[in-house]
Amino acid sequence: MLGRELGAMKMEEHEHKSDRILQMIKKMRQEKAVVDVNVKTAKLVVFSLDGELFAFEGRYVREILIPTEITFVPGSPDFLLGVINVRGDIESVAALTVLLGMPSSKSSAKNRILLAEDSEVRSGVLVESIDDVVDVPVDAIKPPLATINGPISQYLLGETDYRGRNVVVLDLRKLFKRFGTNGR
Amino acid sequence: MVDKELVSPSIGDALDILVFSINDCLYGIDGTQVGRMVMLYEAEQEELPVRWFHQSLTFGHRDVDYRNPRVITLSGGDEPIGLIIDHPRDLVRVAIKSICPLPSIFAKLDALHVFWGGTVLDGKIVLLVDLFRLLR
Q: Nearest-CA distance from A177 to chain B in Å?
């Protein structure tokens, strides 16, 4: 008799175990959702230049374009590669490597143009490849290292981590401000 | 794009532009700004002072190759001066509404003030040059 009761209790335990697990999962998800709501995140467009990872804040990036023919504009500063036709509109394309004092981008099928915009300027920016578009907690963007120097140091917003690699987050507004000074 | 209401009636709905190319890039000049077009030797015979297009606007380290040069003058210009362009086509009629403003960066860079707009012909961008500003 006792054995039967114990057996029934075990069965009941088994039956309710899955319910309990489900409840636990739901609770965990709810807690995660609450955590997600409380954590401010920033969308980052992560891209590569010369083997290094960089990112722009996603709020400034309007489109990611596959490069088409870039028309050279005489009289333009070195950082301005030219203009492209985007569905009947003409957009400028800047060479980020020139502004950052880096070697020229390698031409490949992975090249992309980030069409970015702030309150004053809209322009395409040529990058070697797009690695990802990610949401990261704002807290995860740390102040840039003070040891970074060279032209790039003028445009730093911060640094963060992406799959174990360091990502330099660039301040697009500062880059665009330089456009009015011939990139110098 | 140009708002139709902003277009003065005298401008009309279309513009005749002189299209030419330098190093396979296309440029256009409002036909009403062009006084006349002569051969290079004719300009030399007239002792007309001339400027090469690539010297008026820097081409950086690019080599510029003129295959079919012509000299154009500014319509009604006080000072006789010619601009050497290459490979001019006939005047091309372009609808005003198909002319795009140039990207905002052009307004920020003094050297690019000679360009005032752009249009697309056969899939290629044509940069519109203000001849008056270029030769002034």
A: 10
